[in-house]
Specification:
Distance between the termini: 28 Å
Number of helices: 4
Strand content: under 5%
Structural class: mainly alpha
Radius of gyration: 18 Å
Order of helices and strands: HEEHHH
């Protein structure tokens, strides 16, 4: 087969759709992390799932320091979820201090992911060749 007959597939547009979808989902869930969620039980569980998706999508572009920082924020948020439910509690019996700690951990995890997305030009495309969706 001649070189010009080969199909070139660029996944960038599909990857950007995934980023956009995940960020939209996260935005919608953030309004009330402690609301009930049909599929995940609680919205904070769905938020973690979405952030883990973003985390995995960007992980190939991260340097070791960024990976470690985001991994640490991920572990911290997971621990706060476990702390909240050491005994199976319902919303009305959740410890307010633990809810606050979880909210802060979720915020920090999301903030570290968004910082990496911005640093690598993924969430804010510029002109072609200047760090946009390349």
């Amino acid at each position: 087969m001649a070189e010009e007959d080969k199909t070139v597939f660029n996944e960038a547009s599909l990857q950007m759709k995934r980023y956009d979808f995940l960020q939209m989902e996260l935005h919608n869930l953030r309004y009330n992390p402690f609301a009930r969620h049909l599929e995940s039980g609680w919205c904070f569980n769905a938020m973690m799932s979405v952030m883990e998706g973003l985390h995995l999508e960007i992980s190939a572009k991260l340097d070791d320091g960024e990976k470690e920082e985001i991994d640490n924020k991920h572990i911290e948020a997971k621990k706060k979820i476990q702390d909240l439910f050491t005994i199976r509690e319902d919303y009305w019996n959740m410890n307010p201090g633990k809810k606050t700690a979880l909210t802060i951990a979720l915020f920090n995890y999301e903030k570290s992911i968004r910082a990496a997305l911005n640093k690598h030009g993924i969430s804010t495309p510029n002109r072609e060749g200047q760090g946009g969706w390349d």
